[in-house]
Amino acid sequence: MNVQYYKHWSNNLERYMEYKVYGSEGKGVLVFPSQDQRFYEWEDNGMVSVLAPMIESGKIHLICCDSIDKETWSNGLNGENIEYVSEEEKSRYHERIALHENWYNYIVDELIPEVNGGQELIVAGCSMGGYHAGNVFFRRPDLFSTILSLSGLFHADYFFPKYDDKLIYFNSPLDFLAGQHDPSILLNQYRRKQIFCCCGQGEYEEITSESNRRLEQVLSNAGVSGVFDFWGKDVNHDFYWWRKQAVYFFDKIVNGERVEVA
User: Fold this and answer.
1) Mutual angle of helices 239-255 and 47-56, in 10-degree steps
2) Which of 79, 89, 101, 130 lies closest to 246, judged by CA?
3) Global confidence as pTM
4) What are the φ/ψ torsions at residue 123 (nearest 5 degrees)?
5) Residue 37 has pLDDT above 80, yes or no
6) Per residue in 178-187, pLDDT tens?
7) Would you state the pLDDT for residue 255?
8) Residue 43 and residue 48: Cα distance in Å, rounded?
9) Virtual torsion, Cα 24, 30, 34, 35, nearest 10 deg
10) Which of 80, 94, 187, 207 is 20 to 30 A away from residue 160, measured at CA?
11) Residue 79 belongs to what H/E stretch?
């Protein structure tokens, strides 16, 4: 397998950013790491290995980008049902989300034009990576043909409880999408794309499964179809299952096969 490492300066972030590319042919897959993790996470956790047959046969290649979650999403309160948020914490919200927005702009304005070869990409991720995949997909569907989100969370209030910042709103897909109505250019674009969201119903999947069901309903209300697949109560929030899910869904995506949902 051809593997390339890159380190380039980002004007949006004013720092060097790193990424790795696995393979060189087939459909490009932009991969986001899970919360606080790095561009080599999929390699370290066997995701590249299980997808190697598709990469080596030239069906897909992976573009594994880096994150700055520790400075943005993780750098504050974390959890549901928080009753009190201090004024000091609220004052930091905009600083955190503004830095995230700079990272988002790095992804869409710097990284993607560098790696997509003028073609629409598949975008994918697990856990927080599934959120990032959903966020960039729903904000910029023109850049992507397909999304595969595994155990993604689609509401910002888990990391920014009781927020009232517009920039947070536009980085919270469940909120942002609920405000889209016909005739929406974005909605029409979504209807031409492939949307695959999957999560388990086991340990640590309670929040993500609920978020996925909410997303399914919001999209359905807007007339946008997608595949929402909820695996069993033994399916936990970890790479053991994400490896299985990745093989299952990428096989369907690259071969154009129908996904059967139980």
Assistant:
1) 20
2) 130
3) 0.94
4) -120, 140
5) yes
6) 887 766 888 8
7) 85
8) 5
9) 130
10) 187
11) none
- 96 has a pLDDT exceeding 80: yes
Question: Residue 258 and residue 55: Cα distance in Å, rounded?
Answer: 21
| pLDDT of 78 strictly over 70 | no
Q: Is 102 exposed, middle or buried (0-12, 13-18, 19+ CB in 10 A)?
A: middle
> Which residue type occupies 18?
E
The torsion defined by the Cα of 239, 212, 59 and 6, in degrees rounded to 10, comes to -70
Tokens (6 digits) for 105:
């702009």
Find, among 75, 215, 71, the residue nearest to 154 by Cα: 215
In angstroms, rounded to a whole number, what is the distance separating the alpha carbons of residues 14 and 139? 23
Tokens 């960039």 map to which residue? 136
CB atoms within 10 A of CB 19: 22
Contact 253, 146 (CB under 8 A): yes
Alpha-carbon distance of 193 to 25, in angstroms, equals 22
pLDDT band at 86 (very low <50, low <70, confident <90, very high): confident
pLDDT at 165 over 90: no
Given this model, what pLDDT does residue 139 score? 96
Q: Specify the pLDDT at position 83.
A: 67
Torsion sign (Cα): 196, 79, 31, 111: positive
How many residues would you count in the chain?
A: 262
